[in-house]
User: Fold DUF5714 domain-containing protein from Synergistes jonesii.
Amino acid sequence: MSANGGDERSFEAVTASCVKYFGAPQGRHPMEIVREVMDDVNFPMHNFAHHYLVPAVLLAAMSVRDGSTAESFEKRLAETAKRAKNVLPAFCGFYGACGAAVGCGIFMSVYTGTTPLSKDTWSLCNYATSGALEKMADIGGPRCCKRNTFTALKFMKQYIADNLSAELDLPEEIECGYSKFNAECIKKDCPYYKEEGE
Assistant:
């Protein structure tokens, strides 16, 4: 039983978009999954499903890149969702570890088959989480699930290149279009902020 079993719709939105991307990736890039999910009416501004969105998007992109079978991808995606549901809401403020950053570690663990007993890949998973957390902490609070998702993905683009020798089609520059939905938006202090009307 997961800690976050109550709201399945937002998790389903992530799964549906990732499966669709995996089935027809030509001409699309992973950030389109992110935008599609974030624009879904079942996906709130702040929601623990961002803890799933980050590893799911990374898994979809890497699975397309490495030629995984649909069966293998969907099995790993289900495991990713299962683990992400155990990262409590408000983890960032109450536990000091944003769930989107933990999602980076979840991705690395699922993708590399890492367990608590692994030797060579154990550090890769922990450095993925800690590296993303450092980037988020440098920006500061209050919480923003969109900002932290973008930060996690931007960090992982370079991390994956350095450690898995793979290039992901994720943009260097990301602009956020969700500021108007966030009462706590830090606006110009956020690297992704775009003023309305621009």
About this structure: Residues 2 and 185 are 30 Å apart (CA to CA). The chain has one domain: 9-189. DSSP finds eight helices and no strands in the chain. The two ends are 45 Å apart (CA to CA).
